[in-house]
Amino acid sequence: MAAFSEQRVLSVRHWTSSLFSFRVTRPASFRFRSGEFVMLGLMVDGKPLLRAYSIASPSWDEGLDFFSIKVADGPLTSRLQTIQEGDTILLGAKSVGTLVHDALLPGKRLYLLSTGTGIAPFASIIRDPETYERFEQVILTHTCREAAELAYGEALVASLKDDPLVGEHAHRLVHYTSLTREDHPRTGRITALMDSGQLWAETGGPLDPATDRVMICGSLNMINDCKARVEAAGLDEGSNARPGAFVVEKAFVG
Ligand code: A2P
After folding, report:
1. Which pTM does this prediction carry?
2. Residue ID of nearest Cα to ligand 1 atom 20
3. β-bridge mates for residue 228, sequence order
4. pLDDT digits 0-9 by tens, 112-153
5. Could you tell me if 187 and 179 are in contact, meaning their C-beta atoms sit under 8 angstroms apart?
6. Which of 74, 132, 133, 199 is deepest in the core (most CB within 10 A)?
7. Is 228 helix (H, G, I), strand (E, B) or coil?
8. Where are the alpha helices (DSSP H) in 129-210?
């Protein structure tokens, strides 16, 4: 099997000067679990240039959604940000990842902690009916620098109630946003909101290792800082080989 295939861009939306999302065709043979990532890219100077991208659409969807940062001098995103409907991108044949239900033990509350484009895998998870079969409540946290960066997540969550498969469960999803460099009803890093107890006070109590599960996606520092706090609460890290109480994955940058 070829390592990647050519797929057609179905739509592109620019959210800010540094964030955009796009949808591409999904090969009939391409299977993935909600929350996984895949290699994606373009031909550059006659050679394939691919990077790991979280799939932002759920596994039942006919197309594949992605949410990306734009980096002016990024080898891939400087070019990818100019794609338009009808263009061709390269898509890896196989998806992998740890932000999947299989890597978590059963629980009651599911925290999805994200910063920046780290929300992408959770755009998949919150639209997967399995999420609401496995958990009573889902808390999606999204922390960004500025308000405009929250728009993608806000539109996504707003569309949930009209979703044919998970719309009836939309009331069980809490969208918990905060900003760090602009005024907002809630400000501060997610780690600060944990330390002050504000996150737990606003979402129904501190982490309980018996019933709470956590997925974390953001920068390496964000992951490490969140992981330290989640571990201090007594949660053990899971993997595909051995499910646990929390899982982490780095958001793509560049
Ligand atoms: P801050 O503005 O205080 O750096 P970035 O684009 O740098 O990844 O940041 C995205 C969001 O994640 C910002 O709101 C940023 O806050 C926050 N952030 C950055 N580093 C950490 C960290 N180590 N722990 C928690 N949040 C972080």
Report:
1. 0.97
2. 222
3. none
4. 999 999 999 999 999 999 999 999 999 999 999 999 999 999
5. yes
6. 199
7. helix
8. 129-134, 151-160, 190-195, 198-203
